C-alpha cells in the first residue's frame, strides 16, 4: 500500500507527480529543485544557495514522512555542470555524517526542470 506524502514546507509539484510516496517503510522522494516554498521563486543566487534550498526542501519532505536525513539510504544528484560538483558536494555533505552517509550517484545532465543547476532525489527507510 502506498501513502502520498505532501507538505506545504516544500514546493508543490509542477507536474503529475507527488513530493514523495511512502510504500511500507520505504520513502521515495521526487527530485527537488531550489524553489523557495514561501515565495515560489527559484533560489539561484549561487550554487551553494541553490543546493542549500534543495536540501531544505528535501528536509521538509522527509519530515512530512516523520523521517530525517539519518533515514536516507540512497540519493541521486543531477547537475547541469560537473564543474559545480565540489561546491554542491560541500553543501550536501553538511546534511550527513560521513561514516553513515547514503549511497549516491551524481550525474551531469544537459538540462533540468526550469533550467536549474541541481536536482536531488532520495530514498529513505524507517
From TrEMBL:
Q: Does the keyword Manganese apply?
A: no
Q: Which InterPro entries match?
A: RidA (IPR006056), RutC-like_sf (IPR035959), YjgF/YER057c/UK114 (IPR006175)
Q: What is this protein called?
A: Rid family detoxifying hydrolase
GO MF annotations for this entry? Answer: hydrolase activity
Which Gene3D superfamilies does the protein's record reference? RutC-like
For this UniProt record, give its keywords in alphabetical order, as a comma-separated list.
Hydrolase
Q: Hey, which family's this protein in?
A: Belongs to the RutC family.
Pfam families membership: Ribonuc_L-PSP
Amino acid at each position: 500500500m502506498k501513502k502520498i506524502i505532501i507538505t506545504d514546507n516544500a514546493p508543490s509539484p509542477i507536474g503529475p507527480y507527488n513530493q514523495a510516496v511512502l510504500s511500507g517503510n520505504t520513502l521515495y522522494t521526487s527530485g527537488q529543485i531550489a524553489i523557495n516554498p514561501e515565495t515560489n521563486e527559484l533560489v539561484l543566487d549561487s550554487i551553494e544557495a541553490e543546493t542549500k534550498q534543495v536540501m531544505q526542501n528535501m528536509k521538509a519532505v522527509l519530515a512530512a514522512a516523520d523521517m530525517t536525513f539519518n533515514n536516507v539510504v540512497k540519493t541521486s544528484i543531477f547537475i547541469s555542470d560537473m564543474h559545480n560538483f565540489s561546491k554542491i558536494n560541500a553543501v550536501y555533505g553538511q546534511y550527513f555524517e560521513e561514516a553513515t552517509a547514503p549511497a549516491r550517484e551524481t550525474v551531469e545532465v544537459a538540462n533540468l526542470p526550469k533550467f536549474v543547476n541541481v536536482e536531488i532525489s532520495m530514498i529513505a527507510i524507517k
